[in-house]
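Q: What structure does this chain adopt?
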Amino acid sequence: MVFKERYLDPLPLLDETALKAFLRDAGANPEVHSRYIWKHMFKAGDPDVENVPGLPEGVAAQLGIRFSLKTSSIREKVMSQEDSTIKLVIKLQDDQLVESVIIRHSDDMPRNTLCVSSQIGCSMGCKFCATGTMNLLGNLSSGEILEQLWHANDVLRQEGDPPVSNIVFMGMGEPLDNYDPVISAILGMTDTHRFAVPRKRVSLSTVGVIPAMRRLTREAPFVQLAFSLHAPNQKLRSEIVPSANKWDLAEIMNCLDAHEQAQRLMKSKAKIMIEYVMLQGVNDMPEIAHQLGKLLEGHPFWVNLIPYNPTPHAPYKTPTHEAISAFSEIVQTYGVRAMERHHHGRDVNAACGQLALNTTETMLMITAGDIEDLGKGSLNQRAPKKAQKRDGKTSNRKKKVKDTSTRSVKKNTTKDESGLSWREMLVPIVSAIVLVLVIFGVDWLDASQFMDFTEEI
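A:
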């Protein structure tokens, strides 16, 4: 199947560009009357646009014909038995499918992160990524991207959980290959009249589309940037990330430096994340670790080491934890911070690199025609007790901290007489300190963002 332009009818009401164009053509005030519509949708909670007060005569009726609050629906909902991560398979109005993932963090600062898709498939062709095997089938509109957030918040509401607080563009597709809709969606996510997600909690991952990276730095430097590197030299990177043949690694590094400098001017303390999928015998050797350390030495970035998540038909294997630890220790000798990513949703193909619309009979799955049908089936059965968090009945605090906190990849696992390693004792202490800082409004530390970046997306 090849990429083709998509024409939506009705249009997503969450698509700001389309909505304002309609209001302008209808003789309404795009800025003022779009706010009336947002207030009606988000504050009053009424999905019937014909009930929006204050619109010029005849506009509301036409609005109901041309637009729909939800042009997509949840086709499948799958919950991980390991950590309560929820994968949503979203059916678009033209029957195309995309996936998004709700990561429910079960630590001392409860929050929910949504991993959103920006395209149907992907044209970058990364050989270790399941989405890359789909090719690019189409771009999502900004409204369709925002509908993923709308659906996720409805699911969480039915589960009794707080709404999404953090967004990561790390689902299906290359976000910067669909630049305008993605930026419009980000502005909608962070708009205080709509979803009101803090700007500093929106992150975007890219393989390095240089023109779009430069544009992002000019137009939206507040977006937290993650770069999918995966190899420290141009030759090896081109072998496993085919799109790297088009963009020079040295120039991408210059773009990252420029984005970091723009964020510094905004007084942001965010650090650019370097994503590095570990492939056994391909990019996990000591000599490669030295190359990575030299590449990043002197840059204020940090490395997220991602153990390869198996995907069908891919020839790669996951390195051992010992190999990843050794790799990390070499990188850190160059003054570069490195952390190993913690997995979420791996058992339901929701982890990094696994999104390709796969389902299995072992998944906890329900099918629904729309969001209103959800919450009536087996999803209300929470994960096993070891993964529960929000019912206040978790009995094994030590196990919870161990399972959900980001693991540093140092080798030292010395335990005291209680059976706890120094890392297990340190995590609750650090969490308590961070919680106090957040309660008292310390601006320079965004603890939730730090935790999200160091965990599996």
